[in-house]
Amino acid sequence: MKIRIILRILGLLAVLLGTIMLIPGIVSAIYKEPLGVVAFGISSLLAIIAGLILKHFGERSDMGRKDAFAAVSFGWLMAGLIGALPYLLLGLGPVDAFFESMSGFTTTGATILSHYDSQYYWILSQEVVRSSLAYALVERATHQLIHWSPAGIIELGFGISLDFIDLLTIKGSYFGLLFWRSFSQFLGGLGIILLFIAILPNLGVAGRELYSVEGLGLMKEALTPRVKSAAKAFWGIYLGLAGLEALLLVAAGLPLFDSLCTSFSSISTAGFSPRAYSIAEYNSILVEAIICIFLLLGGTNFIIYHQIVLKKNLNYLLKDAEFRGYIFIMFIAIIILILFGQIPGGITNALRSSVFQVISTMTTTGFVNNFEYDAWSLAAKLVLLLLMTIGGCTGSTGGGMKVGRVIIVLKYVHAELIRSLHPKAVITIKMADKVVRENTVRAVVLFVQLYIMIFILATLIFSITESSNPQFGALSAISAAACSLGIIGPGFGVVAMDFNAVSDGGKILAVFCMYIGRLEILPVVLMFLPETWSE
Predict the structure, then answer these.
(1) What pLDDT digit, counting tens, does each position of 302-354 carry?
(2) Strand 122-123, strand 153-157: pairing
(3) Please, what is the Cα angle at 312 between 309 and 315, to 5 degrees?
(4) HSE of 290 in the Cβ direction (CA atoms, 13 Å)?
(5) CA dihedral 227, 393, 498, 38 (to 10 degrees)
(6) CA-CA distance, 345 to 342, in Å (whole number)?
(7) Which of 20, 150, 179, 420 gives 27 a disulfide partner, CB atoms 3.0 to 4.6 angstroms apart?
(8) Across-strand partners of 123?
(9) What CA–CA distance (Å, rounded) separates 224 from 221?
(10) Which secondary-structure segment (H or E) carries 115?
(11) Are 361 and 488 in contact (CB under 8 A)?
């Protein structure tokens, strides 16, 4: 393994993330949140400095398969650490800051926030902020400025003045931080490595290898002669869908800020909302319908969109076997929830709640349009847990095992059963009349086996780390593992709303599950093999 080329890739990625972090800093400035400006300014500076140091010790060279796995694995881990800096500077503890950041980048949507203002926007408690490094720095700077201007006000020109007292006033809003929560999900939805490939020039072989590890779908080959062109195409489609949803939500009556944050979290099938009551806050069937459409689009294979754009033929979507299976599973789940979910409020409310919750759960988003789902029947909860495990389509922003893999495993099981009856039979597995190669089938079976093993192990460890909490029962442990590994966010029981009642050990386990679930297990697992680190 070539450590120095990995350092160079990580350095470039850190500089890119540090530069991007200026955007929420600008949002903080627009909303007159000095603590947010300081937190994002320092975070951006630290990320860029760290990136330049890593780049200095790195080198440009051809990248092999092992190097690509390491760069992608450590790149996502580094993104979570860099993303945690603003939370840390604004007063959250290291574990909570890392949890919230990794939940964002991995598009999980689980949160540790618990305070909100009169408009139900998430905020940080005054005690937390007052003890933060950002507040201490602003306080020290303000006292120095007061020596220069005893009046406590400096005229900056153009009718703009700087009030020192206002700098030390802890705001009731943190729009810059809320923007970063949703924006980090948007960055992670299609993949920070794919963004890295699309933006940075002259990656050459390194770009192709990174694409092969984090590429979309079961088939990892580039869709165009140039990987960079493919990455740009995917991001162009992704941005276009997010922009369209934001416009539709504004037209439906949402504030611009809410529309942007919600569109970021919808198309990335992530789930962070700027409001504590999630989508239930808006109480609008129109808003829910718009969000559901874009959740369905986010949970669909982006390679299909690429083909539709190139060949201008919508039939690619309708003919796709995985997409048809994706819709069929949700349809069956909705019927079960309506009939056996014991959803209060009559058939109309049952239909509205079940449609939204099934789509939100299967796309591994985690939005909610009511807070009664934890009181639904056991049958409803088990159906939702199953949807969490299946997840969206391959090549989508959704998590879970993915519909395509589930279909291939079912066909593989059927083929093996037939082979038991007819040992000499030649049986091929097909998806949409195309033969699935044997090495792809092996890779899918390996992934599903690893996924189930990790899920069982995580459930066991959750039951150990939370053994002192009498309310953390079997359903809480199972759903905590399922929603973390499937990158969905809200679960049932103790973790139905947030992870505040979970111990630090449990939160660290959840972070690891989010991380390994978002990278689809293999890149992270390979880092634990000695063979990966050999020359």
Answers:
(1) 888 878 877 777 777 888 889 999 999 999 999 999 999 999 888 999 999 99
(2) unpaired
(3) 105
(4) 23
(5) 20
(6) 9
(7) 179
(8) 115
(9) 9
(10) strand 115-116
(11) yes
